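Handout, section B. The chain below has 364 residues.
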Amino acid sequence: MSEASPQPEIRIDQLTGLRTILAGARADRPIDFEPATRDTSDEGGGAGREAEETPSNACAFCEGSESKTPPEVWADRPGGGPADSPGWRVRAVPNLYPALVADAEEAGGGVGGDAPPADPLLASARAGEPDLFSSAPAQGAHEVVISSPRHRTALAQLADDELAIAVAGWRERIAAHAESSSCVQLIVNEGGGAGASLEHSHAQLYALAFVPVLIARERERFTAYAQRTAGGELLADVAAEEVRRRERLVAIDDEAMLVCPWASGSPYQLRIIPRRAEARFELDGEVGVAALRTALRALRARFSGGPELNLWVRTAPRDADAFHWHIDIAPRLAFKAGFELATGVDINVMPPERAAEELRESLG
Protein backbone atom coordinates (compact mmCIF):
# COMPACT_ATOMS: atom_id res chain seq x y z
CA MET A 1 0.00 0.00 0.00
CA SER A 2 1.43 3.37 -0.95
CA GLU A 3 1.77 6.13 1.61
CA ALA A 4 -0.70 8.22 -0.39
CA SER A 5 -3.43 5.59 -0.15
CA PRO A 6 -6.39 6.69 1.96
CA GLN A 7 -6.66 4.98 5.32
CA PRO A 8 -9.89 3.16 6.23
CA GLU A 9 -12.43 5.15 8.19
CA ILE A 10 -15.94 4.67 9.52
CA ARG A 11 -18.74 7.08 8.66
CA ILE A 12 -22.38 7.04 9.74
CA ASP A 13 -25.19 7.91 7.38
CA GLN A 14 -27.10 10.83 8.86
CA LEU A 15 -30.50 9.55 7.69
CA THR A 16 -30.32 5.83 8.51
CA GLY A 17 -27.69 5.67 11.24
CA LEU A 18 -25.98 2.82 9.38
CA ARG A 19 -22.20 2.62 9.30
CA THR A 20 -20.06 2.53 6.17
CA ILE A 21 -16.38 1.61 6.09
CA LEU A 22 -14.53 3.65 3.48
CA ALA A 23 -11.45 1.72 2.35
CA GLY A 24 -10.20 3.42 -0.79
CA ALA A 25 -6.92 1.51 -0.88
CA ARG A 26 -8.82 -1.69 -1.66
CA ALA A 27 -9.48 -0.32 -5.14
CA ASP A 28 -5.78 -0.97 -5.87
CA ARG A 29 -5.90 -4.71 -5.11
CA PRO A 30 -5.19 -7.12 -7.99
CA ILE A 31 -8.21 -8.75 -9.64
CA ASP A 32 -8.11 -12.26 -11.11
CA PHE A 33 -11.56 -11.96 -12.68
CA GLU A 34 -12.70 -10.20 -15.81
CA PRO A 35 -15.34 -7.49 -15.27
CA ALA A 36 -18.81 -8.99 -15.35
CA THR A 37 -20.99 -8.29 -18.38
CA ARG A 38 -24.74 -8.51 -18.50
CA ASP A 39 -26.02 -11.56 -20.40
CA THR A 40 -29.59 -10.90 -21.39
CA SER A 41 -29.96 -14.27 -23.11
CA ASP A 42 -30.45 -16.05 -19.77
CA GLU A 43 -31.18 -13.33 -17.23
CA GLY A 44 -31.53 -14.77 -13.75
CA GLY A 45 -30.82 -18.28 -15.03
CA GLY A 46 -27.86 -18.81 -12.77
CA ALA A 47 -25.57 -20.76 -15.09
CA GLY A 48 -22.97 -22.68 -13.16
CA ARG A 49 -19.21 -22.40 -13.44
CA GLU A 50 -16.51 -24.99 -13.73
CA ALA A 51 -13.77 -23.86 -11.35
CA GLU A 52 -10.20 -23.67 -12.59
CA GLU A 53 -7.86 -25.89 -10.58
CA THR A 54 -4.52 -24.66 -11.92
CA PRO A 55 -3.32 -21.08 -11.49
CA SER A 56 -3.25 -19.03 -14.66
CA ASN A 57 -0.26 -17.12 -13.29
CA ALA A 58 1.91 -17.13 -10.20
CA CYS A 59 -0.61 -17.33 -7.34
CA ALA A 60 0.42 -15.64 -4.10
CA PHE A 61 -1.75 -18.04 -2.07
CA CYS A 62 -0.23 -21.29 -3.38
CA GLU A 63 2.36 -23.23 -1.39
CA GLY A 64 5.83 -22.00 -2.29
CA SER A 65 4.69 -18.39 -2.73
CA GLU A 66 4.72 -17.47 0.96
CA SER A 67 7.05 -14.52 0.33
CA LYS A 68 4.39 -12.89 -1.85
CA THR A 69 2.02 -12.30 1.07
CA PRO A 70 2.41 -10.23 4.23
CA PRO A 71 4.07 -12.18 7.07
CA GLU A 72 1.68 -14.82 8.35
CA VAL A 73 -0.06 -14.36 11.69
CA TRP A 74 -0.91 -18.05 12.07
CA ALA A 75 -0.55 -21.34 10.21
CA ASP A 76 -1.51 -24.97 10.64
CA ARG A 77 1.91 -26.50 9.85
CA PRO A 78 1.91 -30.08 11.22
CA GLY A 79 5.55 -30.79 10.45
CA GLY A 80 6.77 -27.64 12.12
CA GLY A 81 9.16 -25.24 10.45
CA PRO A 82 9.57 -21.46 10.37
CA ALA A 83 6.79 -19.03 9.59
CA ASP A 84 6.23 -18.16 5.94
CA SER A 85 7.62 -21.48 4.75
CA PRO A 86 5.98 -24.42 2.93
CA GLY A 87 4.41 -27.34 4.77
CA TRP A 88 1.22 -25.61 5.92
CA ARG A 89 -2.36 -26.80 5.54
CA VAL A 90 -4.18 -23.54 6.33
CA ARG A 91 -2.52 -20.16 6.63
CA ALA A 92 -3.67 -16.73 7.83
CA VAL A 93 -2.07 -13.46 6.74
CA PRO A 94 -3.03 -9.80 7.12
CA ASN A 95 -5.00 -8.49 4.17
CA LEU A 96 -2.65 -6.51 1.96
CA TYR A 97 -5.48 -4.04 1.23
CA PRO A 98 -7.25 -3.87 4.60
CA ALA A 99 -10.65 -2.42 5.33
CA LEU A 100 -9.61 -2.17 9.01
CA VAL A 101 -6.37 -1.11 10.68
CA ALA A 102 -4.86 -2.15 13.98
CA ASP A 103 -4.81 1.23 15.74
CA ALA A 104 -5.89 4.83 15.36
CA GLU A 105 -2.35 6.15 14.97
CA GLU A 106 -1.77 3.90 11.96
CA ALA A 107 -5.04 5.13 10.48
CA GLY A 108 -3.93 8.70 10.81
CA GLY A 109 -6.56 9.73 13.33
CA GLY A 110 -10.19 10.58 12.75
CA VAL A 111 -12.19 13.65 11.98
CA GLY A 112 -14.55 14.89 14.61
CA GLY A 113 -13.50 12.93 17.67
CA ASP A 114 -12.37 9.49 18.74
CA ALA A 115 -15.50 7.77 17.44
CA PRO A 116 -18.63 8.79 15.60
CA PRO A 117 -21.77 8.91 17.74
CA ALA A 118 -24.12 5.96 17.52
CA ASP A 119 -26.60 8.29 15.83
CA PRO A 120 -25.59 11.85 14.92
CA LEU A 121 -29.19 13.07 15.11
CA LEU A 122 -29.53 11.88 18.70
CA ALA A 123 -26.22 13.57 19.46
CA SER A 124 -27.75 16.86 18.27
CA ALA A 125 -29.99 16.91 21.34
CA ARG A 126 -26.90 17.10 23.53
CA ALA A 127 -24.86 19.59 21.57
CA GLY A 128 -25.57 23.02 20.18
CA GLU A 129 -23.69 22.35 16.94
CA PRO A 130 -23.57 18.60 16.25
CA ASP A 131 -20.98 17.30 13.84
CA LEU A 132 -23.13 15.60 11.21
CA PHE A 133 -20.03 14.66 9.23
CA SER A 134 -17.97 12.93 11.92
CA SER A 135 -15.73 9.98 11.16
CA ALA A 136 -13.35 7.71 13.00
CA PRO A 137 -10.53 5.34 12.10
CA ALA A 138 -11.80 1.93 11.02
CA GLN A 139 -10.06 0.03 13.80
CA GLY A 140 -9.78 -3.73 13.99
CA ALA A 141 -8.13 -6.53 12.06
CA HIS A 142 -8.62 -7.79 8.51
CA GLU A 143 -7.12 -11.19 7.71
CA VAL A 144 -7.11 -13.64 4.83
CA VAL A 145 -7.42 -17.32 5.79
CA ILE A 146 -6.09 -19.38 2.88
CA SER A 147 -8.06 -22.61 2.54
CA SER A 148 -5.44 -24.90 1.01
CA PRO A 149 -1.83 -24.92 -0.18
CA ARG A 150 -3.09 -26.43 -3.44
CA HIS A 151 -4.64 -24.12 -6.00
CA ARG A 152 -8.36 -24.57 -5.46
CA THR A 153 -10.88 -21.95 -6.51
CA ALA A 154 -13.88 -23.22 -4.54
CA LEU A 155 -14.50 -24.89 -1.20
CA ALA A 156 -16.38 -27.59 -3.10
CA GLN A 157 -13.07 -28.67 -4.67
CA LEU A 158 -11.52 -29.52 -1.29
CA ALA A 159 -11.42 -33.13 -0.16
CA ASP A 160 -13.39 -33.90 2.99
CA ASP A 161 -10.34 -33.74 5.25
CA GLU A 162 -9.17 -30.52 3.59
CA LEU A 163 -12.53 -28.85 4.19
CA ALA A 164 -12.47 -29.90 7.84
CA ILE A 165 -8.97 -28.45 8.21
CA ALA A 166 -10.00 -25.20 6.52
CA VAL A 167 -13.04 -24.77 8.80
CA ALA A 168 -10.86 -25.54 11.82
CA GLY A 169 -8.67 -22.66 10.65
CA TRP A 170 -11.72 -20.39 10.57
CA ARG A 171 -12.49 -21.33 14.15
CA GLU A 172 -8.89 -20.77 15.22
CA ARG A 173 -8.75 -17.26 13.82
CA ILE A 174 -12.19 -16.24 15.11
CA ALA A 175 -11.18 -17.41 18.60
CA ALA A 176 -7.94 -15.41 18.35
CA HIS A 177 -9.91 -12.17 17.99
CA ALA A 178 -13.12 -12.88 19.91
CA GLU A 179 -12.07 -11.51 23.29
CA SER A 180 -10.60 -8.26 21.97
CA SER A 181 -13.32 -7.42 19.42
CA SER A 182 -16.93 -6.38 19.63
CA CYS A 183 -17.75 -8.65 16.71
CA VAL A 184 -15.84 -11.06 14.47
CA GLN A 185 -17.22 -11.67 11.00
CA LEU A 186 -15.84 -14.38 8.72
CA ILE A 187 -16.92 -14.49 5.08
CA VAL A 188 -16.13 -16.37 1.89
CA ASN A 189 -16.58 -14.86 -1.58
CA GLU A 190 -16.31 -17.29 -4.48
CA GLY A 191 -16.18 -15.86 -7.99
CA GLY A 192 -15.88 -12.37 -9.40
CA GLY A 193 -19.65 -11.90 -9.32
CA ALA A 194 -19.61 -12.64 -5.59
CA GLY A 195 -16.98 -10.00 -4.86
CA ALA A 196 -13.82 -12.10 -4.91
CA SER A 197 -10.70 -10.46 -6.29
CA LEU A 198 -8.39 -13.52 -6.17
CA GLU A 199 -9.49 -16.95 -7.35
CA HIS A 200 -7.55 -19.13 -4.88
CA SER A 201 -10.02 -20.30 -2.21
CA HIS A 202 -9.83 -18.21 0.93
CA ALA A 203 -11.92 -16.68 3.69
CA GLN A 204 -11.71 -13.16 5.04
CA LEU A 205 -11.97 -12.29 8.71
CA TYR A 206 -13.00 -8.88 10.02
CA ALA A 207 -12.46 -8.19 13.73
CA LEU A 208 -14.66 -5.16 14.37
CA ALA A 209 -14.72 -2.58 17.15
CA PHE A 210 -18.51 -2.28 16.78
CA VAL A 211 -21.46 -4.62 16.26
CA PRO A 212 -23.10 -4.09 12.85
CA VAL A 213 -26.82 -3.36 12.85
CA LEU A 214 -27.92 -6.70 11.35
CA ILE A 215 -25.93 -8.68 13.90
CA ALA A 216 -27.07 -6.45 16.78
CA ARG A 217 -30.68 -6.94 15.68
CA GLU A 218 -30.20 -10.71 15.65
CA ARG A 219 -28.67 -10.56 19.12
CA GLU A 220 -31.64 -8.55 20.36
CA ARG A 221 -34.17 -10.96 18.87
CA PHE A 222 -32.48 -13.96 20.49
CA THR A 223 -32.55 -12.17 23.85
CA ALA A 224 -36.15 -10.97 23.49
CA TYR A 225 -37.34 -14.45 22.52
CA ALA A 226 -35.60 -16.00 25.52
CA GLN A 227 -37.24 -13.47 27.82
CA ARG A 228 -40.70 -13.86 26.24
CA THR A 229 -40.61 -17.67 26.37
CA ALA A 230 -38.95 -18.01 29.79
CA GLY A 231 -35.69 -19.36 28.44
CA GLY A 232 -36.66 -20.56 24.98
CA GLU A 233 -33.93 -20.67 22.32
CA LEU A 234 -35.04 -18.97 19.11
CA LEU A 235 -33.06 -20.82 16.45
CA ALA A 236 -33.39 -24.18 18.22
CA ASP A 237 -37.17 -23.78 18.16
CA VAL A 238 -37.06 -22.76 14.49
CA ALA A 239 -34.91 -25.81 13.72
CA ALA A 240 -37.26 -28.18 15.54
CA GLU A 241 -40.21 -26.82 13.58
CA GLU A 242 -38.33 -27.09 10.28
CA VAL A 243 -37.69 -30.78 11.01
CA ARG A 244 -41.37 -31.29 11.83
CA ARG A 245 -42.60 -29.55 8.68
CA ARG A 246 -39.79 -30.83 6.39
CA GLU A 247 -40.80 -28.42 3.57
CA ARG A 248 -37.54 -26.48 3.67
CA LEU A 249 -35.29 -29.16 5.15
CA VAL A 250 -32.58 -30.19 2.69
CA ALA A 251 -30.52 -32.57 4.84
CA ILE A 252 -29.83 -33.44 8.47
CA ASP A 253 -27.06 -35.30 10.26
CA ASP A 254 -26.21 -36.02 13.89
CA GLU A 255 -24.75 -32.55 14.46
CA ALA A 256 -26.47 -30.05 12.20
CA MET A 257 -29.20 -29.51 9.66
CA LEU A 258 -29.33 -27.78 6.31
CA VAL A 259 -32.40 -25.72 5.42
CA CYS A 260 -33.56 -23.10 2.96
CA PRO A 261 -34.59 -20.35 5.41
CA TRP A 262 -38.26 -19.42 5.73
CA ALA A 263 -37.62 -15.84 4.55
CA SER A 264 -34.76 -16.58 2.15
CA GLY A 265 -33.53 -13.32 0.68
CA SER A 266 -32.16 -14.88 -2.51
CA PRO A 267 -32.69 -18.02 -4.64
CA TYR A 268 -31.38 -21.27 -3.13
CA GLN A 269 -30.09 -19.59 0.02
CA LEU A 270 -29.01 -22.22 2.55
CA ARG A 271 -28.52 -22.13 6.32
CA ILE A 272 -26.54 -24.56 8.45
CA ILE A 273 -28.00 -24.81 11.97
CA PRO A 274 -26.28 -26.84 14.71
CA ARG A 275 -28.78 -29.13 16.41
CA ARG A 276 -27.37 -28.33 19.85
CA ALA A 277 -27.57 -24.65 20.72
CA GLU A 278 -24.11 -23.11 21.01
CA ALA A 279 -23.56 -19.35 20.91
CA ARG A 280 -20.03 -19.34 19.55
CA PHE A 281 -19.04 -21.07 16.32
CA GLU A 282 -15.38 -21.06 17.33
CA LEU A 283 -16.10 -23.13 20.46
CA ASP A 284 -18.17 -25.86 18.82
CA GLY A 285 -15.55 -28.36 17.72
CA GLU A 286 -16.11 -29.71 14.20
CA VAL A 287 -19.89 -29.24 14.23
CA GLY A 288 -21.24 -28.11 10.86
CA VAL A 289 -18.43 -29.38 8.64
CA ALA A 290 -20.45 -32.33 7.31
CA ALA A 291 -23.46 -30.09 6.68
CA LEU A 292 -21.25 -27.61 4.83
CA ARG A 293 -19.93 -30.41 2.63
CA THR A 294 -23.52 -31.47 1.90
CA ALA A 295 -24.52 -27.90 1.03
CA LEU A 296 -21.63 -27.50 -1.39
CA ARG A 297 -22.33 -30.88 -2.97
CA ALA A 298 -26.03 -30.03 -3.42
CA LEU A 299 -25.26 -26.71 -5.11
CA ARG A 300 -22.62 -28.30 -7.31
CA ALA A 301 -25.09 -30.99 -8.38
CA ARG A 302 -27.94 -28.54 -8.97
CA PHE A 303 -25.78 -26.05 -10.89
CA SER A 304 -23.12 -27.49 -13.16
CA GLY A 305 -19.73 -26.74 -11.66
CA GLY A 306 -21.31 -24.90 -8.74
CA PRO A 307 -22.51 -21.27 -8.69
CA GLU A 308 -20.57 -18.27 -7.50
CA LEU A 309 -21.52 -17.73 -3.89
CA ASN A 310 -21.15 -15.82 -0.66
CA LEU A 311 -20.86 -17.57 2.69
CA TRP A 312 -20.83 -16.03 6.14
CA VAL A 313 -20.44 -17.38 9.65
CA ARG A 314 -22.65 -15.79 12.29
CA THR A 315 -21.11 -16.23 15.73
CA ALA A 316 -22.11 -14.47 18.93
CA PRO A 317 -20.95 -10.85 19.21
CA ARG A 318 -19.81 -9.40 22.48
CA ASP A 319 -22.41 -9.18 25.27
CA ALA A 320 -24.82 -11.64 23.66
CA ASP A 321 -26.96 -13.05 26.47
CA ALA A 322 -28.57 -15.53 24.08
CA PHE A 323 -27.34 -16.60 20.66
CA HIS A 324 -27.04 -19.61 18.34
CA TRP A 325 -24.35 -19.65 15.66
CA HIS A 326 -25.18 -20.53 12.08
CA ILE A 327 -23.68 -20.43 8.60
CA ASP A 328 -25.48 -18.88 5.63
CA ILE A 329 -24.69 -19.60 1.98
CA ALA A 330 -26.11 -17.38 -0.77
CA PRO A 331 -25.50 -18.45 -4.38
CA ARG A 332 -25.17 -15.45 -6.66
CA LEU A 333 -28.03 -16.25 -9.03
CA ALA A 334 -29.80 -12.88 -9.06
CA PHE A 335 -29.01 -9.19 -8.72
CA LYS A 336 -30.30 -6.65 -6.26
CA ALA A 337 -32.23 -4.08 -8.27
CA GLY A 338 -33.69 -0.67 -7.53
CA PHE A 339 -36.41 -1.77 -5.11
CA GLU A 340 -34.02 -3.83 -2.98
CA LEU A 341 -31.46 -1.03 -2.88
CA ALA A 342 -34.07 1.61 -2.12
CA THR A 343 -35.88 -0.26 0.65
CA GLY A 344 -33.54 -2.89 2.02
CA VAL A 345 -36.31 -5.43 1.34
CA ASP A 346 -35.31 -8.39 -0.81
CA ILE A 347 -37.49 -9.83 -3.58
CA ASN A 348 -36.81 -13.56 -4.03
CA VAL A 349 -38.29 -15.24 -7.11
CA MET A 350 -37.50 -18.76 -5.86
CA PRO A 351 -39.65 -19.88 -2.89
CA PRO A 352 -37.50 -21.71 -0.33
CA GLU A 353 -39.85 -24.72 -0.38
CA ARG A 354 -39.21 -25.25 -4.09
CA ALA A 355 -35.48 -24.60 -3.70
CA ALA A 356 -35.25 -27.17 -0.89
CA GLU A 357 -37.09 -29.76 -2.95
CA GLU A 358 -34.74 -29.29 -5.91
CA LEU A 359 -31.65 -29.44 -3.69
CA ARG A 360 -32.89 -32.61 -1.99
CA GLU A 361 -33.37 -34.18 -5.40
CA SER A 362 -29.89 -33.12 -6.48
CA LEU A 363 -28.45 -35.04 -3.54
CA GLY A 364 -30.09 -38.23 -4.80
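Note. The chain has eight helices and 13 strands. Compare this with the example in section A.
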